[in-house]
């Protein structure tokens, strides 16, 4: 078991190497997108990440590191809609760190970020219906399966949601 994580926002081209470790890894990408990204797709999506990361200080895409060993383990993201009422969370972890509690910790920390914004009422997460580990992590963190649907590329995904209750 690990002793904690910390986030650092993706901020520059210098961080692209971290992103590539994930999106060019077949095990990671089959679990998350059903296939590995091409280098061109990785470049395009990373440019979008950098653009998105300047919109809001507390939200965006983050590199995730093991706190004690200062080792890159994956990505965590939290994006927010324009009305600031709903956010979406996502994570990817390098395979050598699977099954060590990092997924649960990343989800927990992302939820804490969402809960700080009083206007957010709901957090969603989308996963492959066959990714049983991610589904288990989401349910453990209070998410409920809402629907299974087909996305633009023909893949089937499952959406989970969690209502955020702010105590006044």
Explain what you see.
It is a single chain. With 168 residues, the chain is an alpha+beta fold. The protein has five helices and seven strands, in the order E-H-H-H-E-E-E-H-E-H-E-E. The chain has helices at 16-23, 26-32, 39-52, 102-116, 132-140, and strands at 5-9, 60-66, 71-80, 86-93, 122-127, 144-150, 156-163. Helix 1 (16-23) crosses helix 3 (39-52). The longest helix is centred in the middle third of the chain and has 15 residues, at 102-116. The termini are far apart.
What's this entry about, in short?
The chain is 32% helix and 30% strand. With 168 residues, it is α+β, with helices and mostly antiparallel strands.
**Silhouette:** globular
Arithmetic mean pLDDT: 92
- What pattern of helices and strands is seen along the backbone? EHHHEEEHEHEE
Q: How would a crystallographer describe the biggest sheet?
A: 7 strands, mixed
Query: Structural class from helices and strands?
Result: alpha+beta
The side-by-side strand order for the widest beta sheet comes to 1-2-3-4-5-7-6
* Percent of residues in β-strands: 25-35%
| Spans of at least 5 consecutive residues with low confidence | none
Count the DSSP helices. 5
Q: Give the end-to-end Cα distance, rounded to a whole number of Å.
A: 36 Å
Care to count the β-strands? Answer: 7
Helix content percent band:
25-40%
Rg of Cα set: 15 Å
């Amino acid at each position: 078991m690990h002793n904690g994580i910390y986030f650092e926002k993706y901020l520059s081209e210098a961080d692209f190497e971290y992103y590539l470790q994930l999106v060019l890894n077949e095990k990671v990408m089959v679990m998350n997108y059903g296939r590995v990204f091409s280098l061109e797709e990785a470049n395009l999506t990373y440019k979008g990440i950098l653009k998105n990361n300047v919109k809001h200080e507390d939200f965006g895409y983050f590199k995730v590191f093991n706190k004690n060993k200062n080792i890159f383990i994956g990505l965590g993201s939290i994006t927010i809609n324009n009305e600031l009422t709903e956010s979406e969370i996502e994570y990817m972890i390098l395979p050598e760190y699977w099954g060590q509690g990092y997924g649960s910790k990343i989800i927990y920390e992302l939820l804490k970020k969402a809960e700080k914004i009083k206007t957010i009422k709901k957090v969603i997460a989308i996963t492959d219906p066959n990714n049983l580990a991610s589904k288990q992590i989401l349910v453990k963190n209070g998410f409920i399966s809402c629907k299974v649907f087909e996305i633009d590329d023909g893949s089937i995904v499952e959406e989970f949601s969690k209502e955020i209750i702010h105590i006044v």
